[in-house]
Amino acid sequence: MEIESCSWHKDGLYFLSHLFGGIMISCALLRFFTKNLPKMPHLLRGSNSKKPAKKKVRVYIDGCFDLMHYGHANALRQAKALGDELVVGVASDEEIILYKGPPVLSMQERLTLVNGLKWVDEVIPDVPYVITEDFMNVLFNEYKIDYIVHGDDPCILSDGTDAYGLAKKAGRYKQIKRTEGVSSTDIVGRILSSADYVKKGKVSASSSQPTVSDEFETAKFNKSLPNSGHISHFLPTSRRISQFSSHKAPGPNSRVVYIDGAFDLFHAGHVKILKKAKQLGDFLLVGLYADQTVSWLRGDRFPLMNLLERSLSVLACQYVDDIIIGAPFAVTKDMISTFNISLVVRGSISEDNNPLLWDGAASDPYDVPKGMGIFRNLESPEVITTSSIAERIIANHEIYLKRNAKKEKSEKQYYAEKKYVAA
């Protein structure tokens, strides 16, 4: 029994040693052959491997951007939707004078407005009014522009050529839909129609507080004027407001800053005060006064832009998170609770001309936040006002009347010949 048992153990060890050797030889052969096989990255790489970065599409749009309005903002919004990065060219003062006449706003004011829009990634100042072949090559080679964008309204030069003909020929042109119901020409017309009112009773940034007698004369004068000195042709839709909205909501612990006003004829001063207000918290809520409130504060000829037009201009600003359309003149405790407002601010430059406010007959609209210790006055970074911009146009009214007459003729032709363009 012992001999048989020992023989069995010897046979088992012999078998195991051969089995182990066979396994080692198989592994060596497998390693040799797989080493010489061509690599197959799609099989060998893990599922979490990085894909090559996709090239960003850069689109370019230019303009004067004088008297910035929601039509300009909507053009930039549409242009941004055609790519990943939006580069905006702002025409120089010299070029605008050469082709259109003197601009109302300075280059710096126009740059502030364009930079303040939420869809803009990069701005090129002092671009030529007409895209030459040399400048087009600069855009393509230096700024890596993929497409040049313009609205569906034709841009014909004095010699009858298309200002964007070269871009079209190069196959690098894209078209967007023009925003109906507003133009810089239209806004200049509104201001000129209000010229008599501004001359009779105005408050400029540099003037002292108006006296009751001055405002009484203004009020008397206003009674002789029709309440609709200008007509807006803007047709607002809920979709357009949604397109401009940031679709943001403050978190439960967000510091909500509230600022209110007319924000009429949106300008560089508005952009800078909104930026300053946003820096004081996490979420900026802007209250826009109803048209009736603005008229009560400034006179029957104001606002120049109606409530929904003003709402879009403010929503387009990158520093604004949300707005209250038709905000009450007085900030109430219920309003502070409803929107979880942490701080109420107001700029130092104001155009509230109602004599009741100056005489103390009307209560302070900020009594409640002041009593709660959550009110702060902000020093306005600019002295620009709606009235001061209107004064620039009125001072050169003959030039702007001639320019408007020419532009109105071309705009009538556009509307007569226009066709539907998909957004």
TrEMBL record:
Superkingdom per UniProt: Eukaryota
Gene3D superfamilies: HUPs
Cellular component annotations (GO), alphabetically ordered: cytoplasm
Domain Cytidyltransferase-like, chain residue ranges per copy: 60-189, 258-350
UniProt keyword Lipoprotein present: no
Regions crossing the membrane: 12-33
Protein name per its UniProtKB record: ethanolamine-phosphate cytidylyltransferase
